[in-house]
């Protein structure tokens, strides 16, 4: 990635970002890209998962950029620990050079809110950080398709299980409309697409999405996709 050259007006609070990658040059490159943006502040760097968890607790960033393969504790375990610390904690954006399904699903299960490859553009990285800082998950359409296609395969490697009593209890709290919204989320629909499908305004759909996430104890729509397929709420093609 090369440094971005555009800026955005300072219209809100700074987005605090923590960098976790075992390569110093990679961290430096990310810092250069991000610190030219008026609304992003890099609050720390970590070279391994254990340090990433400790620094997240100490600096309380909005977004953590997390590498997967690091010495000692890897990025997936660090993500699990960060996600388990507290509801509404920092969003974790997984950044890796490895475009592998096992990393993708492990990252989503660990509680990551987004997944990007390091060969993306600076603009994609910056936009991803802003999306996650707003509280939205980042699951590109091509990744959604991979999630769905993998869950569709019999004996899939993700270990899909029938939902348990906790999931049943949470799902019972959803209204019929909210369950419909969850099913559309699981298909990768945007708020605009959901609004067009069920003939509601986007603001109303956004409210329904927020209520679904709150009732199911999920951080964002990325986790809603995983929850829906893991718990048999929807089936690909069904």
From TrEMBL:
Signal peptide as annotated in the record: none
CDD domains assigned: LuxR_C_like, REC_NarL-like
Keyword set, alphabetical order: DNA-binding, Phosphoprotein, Transcription, Transcription regulation
Domain HTH luxR-type positions: 167-232
GO BP term, pick one: phosphorelay signal transduction system
Entry keyword annotation includes Repeat: no
GO molecular function: DNA binding
Residues annotated with 4-aspartylphosphate modification: 67
Pfam families (UniProt xref): GerE, Response_reg
InterPro entries the UniProt entry points to: CheY-like_superfamily, NreC/VraR/RcsB-like_REC, Sig_transdc_resp-reg_C-effctor, Sig_transdc_resp-reg_receiver, Tscrpt_reg_LuxR_C, WalR-like
Domain Response regulatory residues, every copy: 16-133
PANTHER family in the record: TRANSCRIPTIONAL REGULATORY PROTEIN NARL-RELATED (PTHR43214:SF24), TWO-COMPONENT RESPONSE REGULATOR (PTHR43214)
Protein name as it appears in the record: DNA-binding response regulator
